[in-house]
Write a structure and sequence with these properties.
alpha/beta; Rossmann fold; 2 domains; seven-stranded mixed sheet; 11 helices; 9 strands
């Protein structure tokens, strides 16, 4: 049995990016540990920002983790940095915001957990943080450094295949000109840089249930959000659309195509 630590910025990130892989590893008998940097207390939701939303989102996280078979859930205790209207760092963030945390201090905190768990694998995000959220970028910085300190042998950057995503966005932009296509041109990872394509269709029901556990994030702001829209996709189509999860492992030859987080071809 191996131990895999999944490091995320906020509750619900695990459901969107890595839930199928988590459920698969747990089903195979591996120990799965879920770590979040923040409670997500500044996320868009019907509830106002603050402690109440943070508590709600952590309760949702524990429900999601249980559905996925996680053995342990850890919250590092940093504040949600929020997101400015222009997609940058929010000026009104708190003093404990994750984006302002000292990299070495935060990395050591995560490294201590990796050592405690004798982790064989840790997931982080790609350098751009996927779509650029400041806390996601910080997960990359802190997580990659923590793996160095702890000597964790496998570091996987959870990402999305940019190529089909960009094609879809360009098509949608023909009908909705307000869509910022340029922002997607640098989001996530190009297909030829992706080293792991994990087939998680068998675990689509668990992934969907994990998404549904984060009810506070299905709506908020101007209406349905990304997670809410995903949950409206019919089950058979959902299984197809969300049946693959993608990762990048640095140092492997370009063109590597692995099918399992632990490296099976």
């Amino acid at each position: 049995m191996s131990t895999a630590v999944f490091f995320h910025a906020h509750p619900d990130d695990e459901a969107l990016l890595t839930a199928g892989t988590m459920a698969m590893l747990a089903d195979e008998g591996h120990r799965v540990v879920l770590v979040v940097a923040t409670a997500g207390e500044r996320g868009l939701a019907e509830l106002p920002h603050g402690d109440e939303l943070g508590r709600t989102r952590m309760e949702e996280l524990h429900s999601s983790a249980s559905l996925l078979g996680c053995a342990r859930v850890v919250q590092l205790g940093y504040g949600d940095s929020g997101l400015a209207i222009d997609g940058g760092v929010a000026d009104d963030r708190g003093d404990d915001a994750f984006i302002d945390a000292d990299i070495e201090e935060a990395a050591q905190r995560l490294a201590d957990l990796l050592k405690e768990e004798t982790a064989d694998l840790v997931t982080i995000y790609d350098p751009s943080g996927g779509y650029g959220h400041p806390d996601h970028v910080q997960v990359y910085r802190v997580g990659s450094r923590a793996a160095e300190i702890a000597g964790t042998p496998i570091v996987l950057e959870a990402t999305v295949n940019r190529d089909p995503l960009l094609k879809g966005v360009r098509l949608a932009a023909r009908f909705y000109p307000s869509i910022d296509v340029r922002s997607f041109e640098v989001a996530y990872s190009a297909a030829d840089t992706i080293t792991h394509r994990v087939n998680v269709r068998k675990y689509a029901r668990a992934k969907r249930a994990a998404m549904a556990a984060h009810a506070s994030q299905a709506s908020g702001g101007t209406g349905d959000r990304t997670l809410g829209a995903m949950l409206k996709i019919p089950p058979l189509l959902y299984r197809y659309v969300f049946g693959t999860e993608w990762y990048v492992q640095r140092g492997l030859p370009r063109g590597t195509r692995l099918k399992h987080p632990f490296g099976s071809p």
